[in-house]
Specification:
600 residues; alpha/beta; 2 domains; eight-stranded mixed sheet; five-stranded mixed barrel; 16 helices; nucleotide binding; Trimer_LpxA-like_sf
Length: 600
């Protein structure tokens, strides 16, 4: 096989670069039937998010950053209870039926789940996880373009149906040059990646039917006996999900740079994306039409895939350990889905030379963009991507990451930090492991290590305003308490939140929090000042951050304050896109002038 002639890491890099090159050739070109996806759909949690996604898609199409002649849609979840990505999938099927009637039974459809508010990576909260910028490309690639590039070979080897993926993960794979991944079997087909048992505890794990060949292959088509959702290591052993390298596999690849198998004598196959054929999609749609409105969260992976395979049992439907409400309805809904899908085949495409990356948390984001040499090599990630900033010494291994930003020559950005869509003026110093997004720092400033700083444009009562969320990259914005007396349990930048409120001269009252008054968190704490200019907004929020660090008073008592929750409600997408475009144009103009000067 061709892929075996090169080391695993090198063949993975070459395959990835080949797909990126092919996609770059399709950007801005009209696609013929069967050449690309018929439909690309993105899910949104609410109407505000739907509008933000539509605006960004429109901009991309206008600037010819995507293939043309494709139907791009944003499907919004219905108002009311959270319905999970499984519920969003059912909603999307209904939307397709309404838009296309029977026509969609001949379409290849890519469905990307991008609902939710990205509380673990709040720099993606306003504009969406699927529009997260990546440090390469000109213009800069975002997660949407990367998804389309990595799946570029799929539509032409796929029967009509839907490929379902999430917005915050990256799947890279290498197979023989004459091979293709085929999605042409009835029922469900899922990709599987070799992973350590520890990784398996946070993913779906496939219990495969016995293999009838001994030699290693990059690409294998297998049948799945049973699917486990986030199992314990003990459950993996009990279910026969644990694999041991076959002779050839152990010899050639046990020492490779496949992170899941490095020095691992045992491994499991974990999930990523999956496909369902049109007949199965219609079955799920008929079920959804029958039940009407969903009142509980359905997991497309845990609740659809666990029902599949001859070894599936109804037991998983009663496991509600991770669910806080709607338990009785959830169990009933899971059981109905189990009986609906039981007997449906689960085909598995095993990709032995593949990697799965998740970029959904601040920790993962910083690691993969600044310190992960593997992903950097495979995708061609850059330390300075489409930016104006003095060069970084090549010998430096751990570097900062600058994405579409303009930094003064006297700026310093410590390795391990990411700056995106920002302007940093003279003598601005950024500490290690910071995330700076959409900011404008005009004057001398010090951004402490582990700072998270993200600015949003707001439209309030018809007026343009700005607010900057500033906290610690390790702060848990989702952690919540039920009563005001327990607010002391929350932490802001590693400091008791109650102490922070004292420093800012703010009182602990119900008015301090927006939204649900029995779910109090940093997410809905009204602590971020509203300002008339972007630079003032950043400066003021940095002062509150530095006050916490130095334990010196900085009163916010006379400021108009918003929570992150409210900032997202008031966000002005158009102005944020305009700000990014201004930076883009300035960098483009500067590069043209540099090219002219060089040519003389």
């Amino acid at each position: 096989m061709e892929a075996e002639s090169a080391p695993a890491g090198e063949s993975l890099r070459e395959a990835t670069q080949r797909r990126l090159l092919r996609f770059s050739e399709l950007r801005g070109k009209s696609m013929a039937a069967g050449e690309f996806w018929d439909i690309v759909a993105i899910t949104a949690a609410d109407e505000k998010q739907e509008l933000a996604y539509k605006q960004q898609l429109s901009e991309k199409l206008k600037k010819k950053e995507l293939p043309l002649g494709v139907q791009y849609h944003v499907f919004v979840d219905p108002a009311g209870a959270k319905i999970g990505n499984g519920g969003s999938t059912l909603c999307a099927l209904r939307c397709l039926e309404k838009l296309y009637g029977d026509k969609w039974n001949s379409f290849t459809i890519l469905l990307i789940h991008s609902g939710g508010y990205s509380q673990r990576l709040p720099s993606a909260s306003a504009l969406g996880k699927i529009f997260t910028a990546l440090p390469f490309g000109s213009p800069i690639y975002q997660m949407l373009e990367l998804k389309l590039a990595m799946y570029i070979d799929f539509p032409s080897h796929m029967n009509p149906g839907i490929l379902i993926t999430c917005a915050d993960d990256i799947e890279l794979y290498s197979i023989g040059e004459s091979e293709f991944i085929r999605f042409d079997k009835p029922g469900f087909t899922a990709l599987a990646h070799p992973s350590s048992l520890t990784v398996g505890t946070t993913h779906g794990v496939f219990v495969l039917e016995p293999c009838n060949h001994l030699e290693y292959r990059d690409l294998e088509y297998r049948s799945c006996h049973r699917f486990l959702h986030k199992p314990s290591i003990e459950e993996m052993y009990e279910s026969d999900a644990v694999c041991r390298p076959r002779n050839f596999f152990q010899q050639e690849f046990a020492g490779s740079d496949i992170p899941s198998l490095k020095l691992e004598p045992e491994y499991v196959y974990t999930d990523s994306l999956f496909y369902m054929d049109h007949k199965t999609a219609k079955k799920l749609l008929a079920f959804y039409e029958k039940i009407g409105t969903l009142h509980c969260e359905i997991d497309a992976y845990g609740d659809f895939l666990q029902a599949l395979g001859p070894g599936a049992t109804v037991e998983y439907t009663k496991n509600t350990s991770n669910v806080t409400k709607e338990e009785s309805e959830l169990v009933d809904m899971r059981q109905r889905i189990f009986h609906l899908l039981k007997g449906t085949p689960l085909n598995v495409v095993v990709l032995n030379n593949s990697k799965f990356y998740h970029i959904g948390t601040t920790e993962e984001y910083l690691f993969h963009f600044t310190a992960d040499s593997s992903l950097k090599s495979e995708l061609g990630l850059q330390s300075i991507a489409f930016s104006l900033f003095p060069s970084i010494p090549e010998c430096s291994t751990n570097k900062p990451c600058i994405i579409q930003s303009i930094l003064d020559s006297t700026c310093s950005v410590t390795p391990g930090s990411v700056v995106e869509y920002s302007r940093l003026g003279p003598d601005v110093s950024v500490g290690e492991n910071c995330i700076i997004s959409g900011a404008y720092v005009k004057t001398t400033a010090v951004l402490p290590a582990y700072s998270f700083v993200c600015s949003l444009s707001l439209k309030m009562n018809g007026h343009l305003k700005y607010s900057t969320m500033a906290c610690g990259v390790q702060d848990n914005l989702k952690q919540n308490v039920k009563t005001l007396s327990d607010v002391k349990l929350l932490q802001f930048f590693g400091v008791c939140f109650l102490s922070c409120l004292d420093i800012w001269n703010l009182k602990v009252t119900e008015e301090l929090f927006s939204g649900n008054k029995t779910c109090l968190s940093l997410w809905n704490a009204r602590i971020f000042p509203v300002c008339s200019s972007l630079s003032d907004s950043v400066t003021t929020s940095l002062k509150m951050l530095n006050a916490v660090q130095s334990k010196s008073a900085f009163s916010l008592n006379n400021c108009k304050l918003l929570s992150i929750e409210e900032m997202l409600f008031y966000k002005d997408i158009e102005d944020m896109i305009t700000y990014r475009e201004q930076i883009f144009l300035e960098i483009t103009l500067n590069r043209k002038q540099s090219d002219l000067e060089t040519s003389y």
